[in-house]
Write a structure and sequence with these properties.
The C terminus is likely disordered. It contains eleven helices and five strands; from the N terminus they run H-H-H-H-H-E-E-E-H-E-H-H-E-H-H-H. By secondary structure, the chain is an alpha/beta fold. The chain is about 45% helix and about 15% strand. The protein folds into two domains: about 50 residues; about 160 residues, Ribonuclease H-like superfamily/Ribonuclease H (Nucleotidyltransferase, domain 5, 2-Layer Sandwich), CATH 3.30.420.10. The chain is globular, with a radius of gyration of 21 Å.
Length: about 290
């Protein structure tokens, strides 16, 4: 991200802008908060999608209109794109990946995942705030559902995703496979290069394949219903403090039925140590 120091002893603002190929107006631009009505609409779309990820823009528009929202389908499409959500069904490939961002095949189809640190996964979700929205990325161990690291950002630059990845590698070692979607943050050289340097195989979902990364999608549903929508943090600082408490609770206090009513942290440690109490494996995901 380019930043300009307004006061410089030798360069004028015009000269700085010419060097960076940007307009002078952009230097003085101050972002404005989104209207409250639009923020409420974004949150409503997000909640509908969490409850039914098969909703496309047409059905989403119909539901919103039934709730009294005077909204066009084009606006709903635009807001869904901003949230990074799309209906769960196979679609034709109408876009090409950036030539500098290669994608990788999906490696989990038919794979038996039976131990911690065999497969990690990551994803980004939108977090509604009172006067805007932020983005949350998390790294999760697929087998145990243990959240290994997370970060919040006000932009979709790749650096906060790379930071979360580096945190997880530093504290939990190296997985055999790392799975993500084909988002630009995860296909960037900074992200894939970090994985390649660590000797990790890279796996990526097919386009529009929500179920390819299902466990972290379930995490987003849980964190929003049990944390974000109940407490409605007003600032980034408040959101970070709230997520820190809730993710600790999720990892170490919240039992999972699919984990034989152990917590993700207990299940993760039991797998690493070969504990005899580990008597139930998470169900395999059908391809």
């Amino acid at each position: 991200m380019q930043r300009i120091k307004i006061h410089h002893p030798k360069l004028s603002i015009s000269a700085k802008c010419r060097l960076l190929s940007i307009s002078r107006a952009s230097v003085y631009y101050q972002p404005q908060p989104r209207p409250a009505a639009e923020m409420a609409l974004l949150r409503q779309i997000d909640q509908y999608f969490l409850d039914n990820p098969c909703l496309g823009s047409r059905k989403m528009t119909a539901l919103l209109r039934r709730d009294g929202q005077s909204v066009s389908r084009k606006k709903v499409q635009r807001l869904m794109r901003q949230l990074g959500i799309q209906a769960v069904y196979a679609k034709p490939n109408t876009s090409q990946p950036h030539p500098l961002h290669p994608t990788y095949p999906y490696l989990l189809r038919g794979l038996e995942i039976n131990r911690a640190n065999q497969v990690w996964c990551s994803d980004i979700t939108y977090i509604p705030m009172q006067r805007g929205f932020l983005y949350l990325v998390a790294v999760m161990d697929w087998y145990s559902r243990n959240v290994l690291s997370w970060r919040v950002s006000n932009t979709l630059e790749a650096d906060f995703c790379v930071g979360a990845l580096q945190d997880a590698l530093r504290h939990f070692g190296t997985p055999a496979i790392f799975n993500t979607d084909q988002g630009s943050q995860f296909t960037s050289q900074a992200f894939t290069g970090t994985l390649q340097d660590a000797g990790v195989q890279i796996s990526m979902d097919g386009r529009g394949r929500y179920l390819d990364n299902i466990f972290i999608e379930r995490l987003w549903r849980t964190v929003k219903h049990e944390c974000i929508y109940l407490h409605a943090p007003a600032t980034g600082t408040a959101l970070n403090a709230l997520l820190k408490r809730w993710i600790h609770y999720y990892n170490q206090q919240r039992p999972h039925q699919s984990l034989n009513y152990q917590t993700p942290h207990e299940f993760y440690l039991a797998s690493l140590t070969g504990s005899s109490t580990l008597n139930m494996q998470p169900p395999a995901l059908a391809a």
